[in-house]
Amino acid sequence: MRAAWAEIHLEAIRKNVQYLMSRIEPTTKFMGVVKADAYGHGVIPVTRILEQEGVSQFAVALVQEGIELRQAGFQQPILLLGHTFEEDYPLVLDYKLMPSIFTMHQARALNDCAEKRGEKAVIHLKIDTGMGRLGFVADAGDTVKNITDIVRMRNLEVQGIFSHLATAPQTSDTTYCDMQFAKFMRLLDKLKSEGIEIPIRHIANSGATILFPHMQLDMVRPGTAIYGLYAGPELADLPDYPLYPAMEIKAKLAHVKPVPKGTKVSYTGSFETRRSSVLGVVPLGYVDGVFRNLANRGSVLLHGQRCPMVGNICMDQFVIDITDIPNPEIGDEVVLVGHQDNAGISAEEVGELAGTISIEILCGLGKRMPMQFKN
Fold it and tell me: Which end of the chain has the smaller Cβ count within 10 Å, N or C?
């Protein structure tokens, strides 16, 4: 059994979903984003919790992710957020997945595929309001005509239209977020003037779901908040934004080594002890998602105290300074993300030290990292 693991607290996910549900109207739909193995938390157990709590639709990035949910027995609508290639259209129809459509070529090809099978493909239209990524450009001159043409295609059923906010909604500066929402609403108004009203309009991510009720529209699409992650640093300080982190990353102390002053540690000797010290080895490395730039910057918890990560991070292990820890023993629990006694290290803190975001820390765990699901 691997002496390192990720603990997934399913009750935390349940509480987060309940909180998000409390922020929306009873008639507003909830689409839970469970792409990337539910942000690294285990897609099947997580999706079951969401299903139990009344989440009515799910969103993933890839066709394979949608198929995995279908094969696990989930019958709810599943939106494919990313680009779906034409060769996968038969799978989209086989498994009743909803692709995002954002070019006329896509629409015609999917319509033709569905027509040949005597079926209708259910789709959502993706609109670019400021992300600069996928989507019909909201204010482009041909967007209304293109959408009108797609709505008229006999073998496509346009069930939804959505956009993606490029910035986490912040209470201090909502300028860009407001601009994107305004663009989206102007497009919807133009479509309405042409007699086109698409049933499900959605743009609200986690932050907008909580902070901006006017952006909830027909459906919200939270991701990070489900897993207890904060979409922006200001949100973590809001009293009405209570989230429960669902993942802890832990390992067992693998080795205890007393060393003299002046001992160089790990590759390139990037750390040198300044006193007689006790070093500990943790059996996790960069292949497991421990970022190399945490070397000589990050810390872990041992016996409820912080211990600095010293020396370069190796592929399978890293070293910590445990000189000030009384009676450390091989097998003692080490916490990289999570709580121990009264101390805690958040994914947000680790992400900031690593020069990235909390989501990447949790999604970046390698295949060798087992999960333990806790209720």
Answer: N
